[in-house]
Amino acid sequence: MSFQSSKINAETVLHFPGGVATAQILRSEVLSSQQVLSSQAAPATAEPLLPVLIVLHQETSTPGRVGNALRALGHRLDIRRPRFGDPLPKTLDGHAGAVIFGGPMSANDPDDFVRQEIDWIAVPLREQRPFLGICLGAQMLAMQLGAKVAPHPEGRVQIGYYPIRPTPAGLANCPGWPDHVYHWHREGFELPVGAELLAEGSDFPVEAFRTEHCFGFQFHPDVTYAMMHCWTTRGHARFELPGARERHHHFADRAVHDVTERAWLKAFLDGWLARAPLSVMSEAAE
Q1: Residue 61 in contact with residue 103, Cβ under 8 Å?
Q2: Integer distance in angstroms from the first to the last C-alpha of the chain?
Q3: Burial grade of 197 (CB within 10 A; 0-12, 13-18, 19 or more)
Q4: What is the CATH number of the domain that holds 125?
Q5: Are 178 and 257 in contact, with CB atoms under 8 Å apart?
Q6: Would residue 61 count as lying in a domain?
Q7: Structural domain tally of the chain?
Q8: Which of 282, 281, 279, 273 is nearest to 72 (CA)?
């Protein structure tokens, strides 16, 4: 059942028996109601949230589940691809945070855009802004902090779901970690000096770390079901590498672990974007 609304005034109300006096009372009440409504100020519109800077590395790359979660929180995405000439901002004053995603290249590659992105990470570090590096992005963060990025000494890779173990610091930063997460990489990195280890693994000991407001994840919480289909189709030759999981395991393991990983990612992003620069917090305390 539906009800159609119409504007109430003295002409549209029903005229009950009672003559002019009743009509005058009704007209007076209607006008009084309209005056009250018109005197109420319209609710102030909320300020739009700042966009999140998204750095991608291929023409068809997307921010996947991370992008979906950020949009759901009300943030626009400022997507840039420095590999194809997009500039990076000199400051993050106009952004809520920044995410550098993965890619097939290495943080050790000599390409100009790789060096440019590694050097640019000094901006969120200096300004104490939320930054997240995923896979290649985490390796770039580690390298910016002086840590070594290199392949496994025995040539092993992680392609598929593998177990991780959150540390006490990781649980304190964001509880509810999944016990298996999705990977697609052949290089890892050392824990940078002064950084906090959040999660560890087996073949690649450093799975997640943090320094102030900057986080690095060796794994891929951004991968959607469609992305997994694409990666496992185009990259099927990599299943022959030592340590890689066969394609059917990717989807079987996703059915088991994805619900927990998705919930954890949402909780992490909520807390990550809520991190205010330390300088702002210091000014507020004065």
Answers
A1: yes
A2: 58
A3: middle
A4: 3.40.50.880
A5: yes
A6: yes
A7: 1
A8: 273
Enumerate helices (H) and strands (E) in the chain, giving the number of each: 9, 12
Domain that holds residue 149: 52-275
Report yes or no on 234 lying in a domain.
Answer: yes
Sign for the pseudo-dihedral over CA of 129, 194, 134, 112: positive
Nearest to 55 by CA among 75, 77, 70: 77
Which residues contact residue 131 at a Cβ distance below 8 angstroms, ignoring those fewer than 6 apart? 97, 98, 99, 100, 121, 124, 125, 141, 213, 214, 215
Angle at 256 between CA 250 and CA 258, to 5 degrees: 80
Cβ count near 86 (within 10 Å):
13
Q: Are strands 131-134 and 214-217 parallel, antiparallel or unpaired?
A: parallel
**Strands 158-163 and 180-185, bridge-based pairing:** antiparallel
Q: Where are the alpha helices (DSSP H) in the chain?
A: 19-39, 64-72, 112-120, 122-127, 136-144, 168-173, 225-234, 247-273, 278-285
- CB–CB of 217/132 below 8 Å? yes
Query: Does residue 151 lie in a domain region?
Result: yes
20-65 pLDDT, tens digit each: 444 443 344 434 444 434 444 444 556 789 999 999 999 999 999 9
Task: Specify whether the CB–CB gap between 137 and 185 falls below 8 A.
Answer: no
Backbone angles phi, psi at 54, to 5 degrees: -120, 125
CA distance 179 to 161: 10
Name every residue whose Cβ is closer than 8 Å to that of residue 115 and which is 6 or more positions away in sequence: none
pLDDT tens for each residue of 198-223: 999 989 999 999 999 999 999 999 99
Strands 214-217 and 52-55 turn out to be: unpaired
Give the predicted TM-score (pTM) of the model.
0.81
Specify which residues 159 forms β-bridges with: 184
In a domain? residue 166: yes
